[in-house]
Amino acid sequence: MTCVDWARLLVRGCWVRTVPSAPTWGIRHVGRHANVHRSVVRRSRDRDGENDRDDGGENRRLSLPLFPAPSPGGEERARRTERAAFAAVGPEPGEAIDKARGFPMSYKVAVVGATGNVGREMLEILSERGFPVSEVVALASSRSLGQEISFGDRTLKAKVLDHYDFSDTDICLMSAGGSVSKEWSPKIAAKGCVVIDNSSAWRYDADVPLIVPEVNADAIVGFKKKNIIANPNCSTAQLVVALKPLHDAFKITRVVVSTYQSVSGAGKEAMDELFTQTRAVFVSDPIEVKKFPKRIAFNVIPHIDVFMEDGYTKEEWKMMVETKKILDPKIKLTATCVRVPVFISHSEAVNVEFENPVTAEEARDILREAPGCLVIDKREPGGYATPYEATGEDATYISRIREDATVENGLSFWCVSDNLRKGAALNAVQIAEVLINRKLITPKAQKAA
Ligand SMILES: NC(=O)c1ccc[n+]([C@@H]2O[C@H](COP(=O)([O-])OP(=O)(O)OC[C@H]3O[C@@H](n4cnc5c(N)ncnc54)[C@H](OP(=O)(O)O)[C@@H]3O)[C@@H](O)[C@H]2O)c1
User: What are the Cα distances from residue 88, in Å, to 121, 214, 322, 375?
Assistant: First the structure.
């Protein structure tokens, strides 16, 4: 069991089934996929208090294992989980699956960084969504050779990236950090394998499209220049999903965003650090600070990534540059990025100024229909989304939508999403689905036949 598995179970209050050993997390094997299924549909629908229906009769369902059994008496939790599963997961997500099943086409996919937080999530999402794979290969560093990793009901054994030949692989989902990607992505791409990269190594390259399928899927055609497609930073992905429909309707001029980012955004060791420090506080052990610049347990740290000359951090700079590249270069954006002691899911407080007048009601109506968005906005205690609800889900949750009377045409809202899913793994798989849906790649095995 991984730290991500454990964190997801922690927030969902789920039950432990069997217990072999797990050094850091103290828990061993948990019934994560216990008989609970979720549905994936084409578009998000309103889940706020006024309209409590599930799918408006339009949603195509695909039953897939994902969530562990709810805790006893957790009917409301199960209901909300089910409802959240109706969140949009990209432009017509079922389409890749349906089409693929209609065609005898499947793809050899490699996941680089398969032992990490994002890599494991990628494998899970490929399986959940029935991605048309002929073979999946799990790759990591030599440290992980032979390590077992779940892929649906199967177990894969990790191979070493350095020794793997990509000649017959169609798609590489890369999530092993910037330096590994800088070295390996061009080599892999040169073998005719399309690289979808999660690091920041290629995001700002003019010849590499930076894609969030709900926002700028059409830009994907540019991938042919380098055979590489970049995934945005986790905090940018959820932000642009929420901003896109508002920009289309009212034209955004300026955004002020403050983030509350979970520790999983900094990798598996960072999750271990929050766990270990939290435990140390309770048992009065000394607190060790390794991954973060200050103690993270029972604290918040207004610093993510390195400092830039102008006083912003690189994480804040990334949000600004990536929003411009994905959404509109004319949008002005200023960010303050903060790490909080939450295991999974990033939250953002967003203030937006528009060229045209906007009301909260209009914004709410637009966001209710927007792909990837799920509005929970009841204006009462608990009538909003928190990281607790967003963890394990695909949607970008939007709450607290209100007009900002201090500026002309201003709006504020709260936005939460699972950083390992929409912020990384899900977005990467959605990009691969766009490649397939738009027939931009053909399996090498088929070409050879
Ligand atoms: N976490 C997020 O929310 C998020 C969001 C967007 C983007 N990203 C990006 O996704 C990437 C991975 O993040 P993560 O959170 O999954 O990190 P992580 O949990 O620390 O995992 C890192 C993965 O990279 C592998 N790796 C490291 N060095 C390698 C090498 N030389 N050759 C092959 N594999 C190597 C590791 O394998 P070993 O286990 O063998 O060391 C591990 O599988 C990073 O670039 C990160 O910036 C993360």
Answer: 18, 9, 22, 12
CATH class of 93-232+424-442: alpha beta
Q: Please provide the average confidence, as pLDDT, over all residues in the chain.
A: 82
The answer to whether 131 and 196 are in contact (CB under 8 A) is no
In this prediction the pTM is: 0.82
Question: Confidence class of residue 282 from pLDDT cuts 50, 70 and 90?
Answer: very high
Q: Is the pLDDT of residue 279 over 50?
A: yes
Q: Counting atoms of ligand 1 from 1, which one is nearest the CA of 115?
A: 43
Nearest CA, atom 24, ligand 1? 176
Each domain of the chain, given as residue ranges in start order, spans 93-232+424-442
Closest C-alpha to ligand 1, atom 36: 113
Q: How confident is the model over 194-223, as pLDDT tens digits?
A: 999 999 999 999 999 999 999 999 999 999
Residue 234 among the catalytic residues: yes
Ligand 1 pocket mutation pick from 2, 117, 149, 343 by most atoms within 8 angstroms of CB: 117
Nearest to 247 by CA among 363, 120, 101, 378: 363
* DSSP, residue by residue, 408-446: TTEEEEEEEE-TTIIIIIHHHHHHHHHHHHTT----HHH
Residue 128 to residue 124: CA distance in whole angstroms: 6
> With contact defined as beta carbons under 8 Å apart, do 65 and 37 qualify?
yes
Give residue for tokens 């209050």.
Answer: 13
pLDDT at 83: 33
Centre of ligand 1 to C-alpha 175, Å, is 5
Is 303 part of the annotated catalytic residue set? Answer: no
Tens of pLDDT along 352-408?
999 999 999 999 999 999 999 999 999 999 999 999 999 999 999 999 999 999 999
Rounded average pLDDT over 111-138: 96
